[in-house]
Design goal:
single chain; alpha+beta; Arc Repressor Mutant, subunit A; three-stranded antiparallel β-sheet; 21% strand; UPF0270; YehU-like_sf
């Protein structure tokens, strides 16, 4: 079973965070259902979720992959 490490978004440079969020929202395309969002709008939503502690960046050392997950 894979363990995840939480990566504090505040420790990332602005460029690194922006690049990660861009990669995430374009990872599986940009179809968000009935309410179509631009890439920039989705990035703003993710950044807001991180800033308000509703989401966290997690990293899996086992798979060397990362994701943004809702905070439990």
């Amino acid at each position: 079973m894979s363990e995840f490490v939480e990566i504090p978004w505040q420790k990332l440079s602005d460029d690194a965070l922006q690049g990660m969020l861009e990669e995430l929202v374009t990872r599986d395309g940009t179809d968000y259902g009935e309410n179509e969002l631009t890439v920039d709008a989705k990035i703003r939503q993710l950044r807001h979720a991180l800033e308000t502690k509703k989401a966290v960046i997690v990293f899996s050392p086992e798979t060397e992959s990362w994701n943004v997950s809702a905070k439990e």
